[in-house]
Write a structure and sequence with these properties.
By secondary structure, the chain is mainly alpha-helical. The chain has a single domain, classed as Up-down Bundle (de novo design (two linked rop proteins)), CATH 1.20.1440. Helix content is 73%, strand content 0%. The chain contains four helices and no strands. Helix 1 runs antiparallel to helix 4 and helix 2 runs antiparallel to helix 3. The longest helix is centred in the middle third of the chain and has 27 residues. The protein is elongated. It starts with 13 loop residues before the first helix and ends with a helix.
């Protein structure tokens, strides 16, 4: 029988790792945004992406399953906000359709992983 790896830190969570990759991708994409967006869409997109990983980390450190689930739910909310902002960026031409698809697919993967974490914590 295969033994599962122990999770000692939030960085061991696949959801956090994928979300971290999403943050890195978002920072690279937003580097190309017009400088006039630095305090607008660029800042909003980056904050949403960072919030996803931050809430996963904070949820991991919580003791009760209810608290953990609440932070994973907040992470999911930030992810949905990010997805909406990426659509705006695509539609106004700041992100190519190809880069949008890559980023969007990763965000959907993170969403599924977060929903999985929430289900585990709610049982």
């Amino acid at each position: 029988m295969e033994e599962k790896a122990k999770i000692h830190s939030f960085t061991d969570l696949i959801a956090w790792r994928k979300a971290h990759n999403l943050v890195l991708m978002v920072y690279k994409l937003t580097d190309e945004f017009p400088k006039s967006e630095v305090f607008g869409l660029t800042n909003q997109i980056r904050r949403s992406a960072v919030s996803v990983t931050s809430n996963i980390a904070e949820g991991f450190s919580r003791v009760t399953n209810k608290d953990k689930s609440q932070f994973y739910a907040m992470s999911l909310g930030s992810l949905t906000e990010l997805q909406s902002q990426l659509l705006i960026a695509r539609d106004i031409g700041y992100i190519s359709k190809e880069n949008f698809m890559i980023t969007s697919e990763l965000s959907v993967e993170v969403s599924k992983l977060l929903n999985g974490l929430r289900k585990i914590r709610n049982t």
